[in-house]
Structure formats: C-alpha cells, structure tokens
Amino acid sequence: MLARDLLTHLAATGRTAVAAGRGDLDITDPESVHAAFAAHRPAVVVNCAAWTAVDAAEEREADALAVNGTGPRLLAGACRASGSVLLQVSTDYVFDGRARAPYPEDAPAAPRSAYGRTKLAGERAVLELLPDTGYVVRTAWLYGAGGRNFVRTMIELARERAAVDVVEDQWGQPTWTEDLARQLVGLGQRALDGTAPPGVYHGSSGGRTTWFGFCQEIFRLLGADPARVRPTTGDRYPRPAPRPAYSVLGHHRWHAAGMAPIRHWSAALAEAFPSVLESTGGTARRPAGRPGPRDTESDTTREKAEITCDPCR
What we know:
Elements: H1 2-12, H2 30-40, E1 44-47, H3 54-59, H4 61-82, E2 85-91, H5 114-129, E3 134-139, E4 142-143, H6 150-160, E5 164-167, E6 171-172, E7 175-176, H7 177-193, E8 199-202, E9 209-210, H8 211-222, E10 229-232, H9 265-279
Parallel strand pairs: 1-2, 2-3, 3-8, 4-7, 5-10
Antiparallel strand pairs: 6-9
Helix pairs in contact: 1-7, 2-4, 4-5, 6-8, 8-9
C-alpha cells in the first residue's frame, strides 16, 4: 500500500526508482541484499518491507524479528558500505500506548508486543549502523487505495450491515499513504542535500481521533448515517497482542528538516476518500445524512462487527 503510492509519487516527480519486491530482494538474506545493491547502487533506500501480522508475531517472534530486525540491519550495513541513505518505516507500537500526550520523537520506547519489539530492533540497527545517514520514520493507522485497510473495510461493512460496533477507547492518527509517501520523498531529498538531521521522525497525520470517530467520518463521507456506528471498548475483543490505547505521535522534528508535518487527518481523509471508495467498486456518494437502503432497519436486526486494524502497509 505505501510502496505503491511511493512509486507513483516518485514517478510524478521524475525520480528514478527501483521497486524490489520479495522475488527480487529478500532483506533477510545477506547475499540477496548484496546482489541488489551491487546491481542498482541506490542513493536512497526506503524500506517498506515488514512483518505486520501483529497477532501472529506473538507466536512467531523469531520470524517477525528476521524481517523487522535482521532485515533492516542488513540493509543498513549495505547502505553504510555504499554510502546510501536509508529511510526505515517504523511504528507507534514501539511505545507502550499508555501516554496522555503525544509521544515526542525521543520518548523512551517500551513495546508491549512482539511486533513492537521486533520493529524497535530494526530502528536501533539503523540508528546504530547509520548515525549520519539513517532515518527512522514512525507511522500509524495507515490507509490507502492499494491494499486492505480500515477505510476500505468500513466502506464494505456499511454496504453489508445495518450497524457496526467500533472501539472508542483507542486513540490515534489515521494516515493516508499518499501523504506519507510525499513526506518520505521530501525527507530523502533533504537527506541527500544534507539539510535533514538523521534520526527519528514521526510520519503520522496531525490531530487525533478514535477508531469510532474515524469510522463515523468514513460513514459521513460515504453518505451513510454516522449513527449506524456504535461505540464499544477494546476489552470486548481480546487479541493475542495488546493494542495501544494511545498512539498519538508528536511531529516537532520535521521543522529541523525544514519540512512541515503531515496535515490533519480529516482533511487528508476527505481528499483520499474518492480513490479509496473507487478501489472498493463504488463511485457515487449520497448526500450526507440521507438514509441508505439499510439505514432505517431497527436495532433488533443490527449485527455486531469486530473491528480491528493491524498496521498493514
């Protein structure tokens, strides 16, 4: 999802990019990494590869670590040898999710899940091996037209169900992959120019909301009644990996790079919505507030939906 938007943006700006998919580059294999760098000699590497199956990582932490920890370490080593810049995409899951104010970039990491631990290992490898050319960009709650994500799922459920139950006790920043792609390209260029300090940046949207509030806005943009979204709590849906209750990130370091942070999540969603809707097979939008075919069904016919969103990219 992110890589597709990144490639589209790079093409639009006239930059040459090589898309190394899994069949072209296994980031857990030193020989594969060496061969890819020898063939392409990249100026900037953006690592969009990751193990993002949060619950599966609890039982397969070694496998997740190979992708999220060993992979970035191998890429960082190759970048050090070739003089390349590395942009490592990371996650809010490196924090404990118990804060009450936005996490600054230098907040202590305290992951509570295997996924968070393995992503933190990747961060530390990049910062250790590339103190001058390594960049960690943490993001959260990604959505876009190119893959499975919360917005697409809610659009589909709005067509299928009279109501959905969505958690209201988890806070975060919905982030459009196109916005993050633009931010990564800008950071990569400034890294090459020597005007962006290396280190940690937070690549999430401005503002904050809950999954419940996010879903209500999706329904409103779809032309469905937001009252069809009903609040619930995360403890109703226990999962192997704990979900952060608070995933709001601070964005102060962008100013050091001469860049503005990503815009407010609601403005981005409004712009993104037509393309995401089209990716689900929809095109038209009813005026806000007008009932859809199932909006008037009684509570007795409503179905409960377990709504979760892993940090898929």
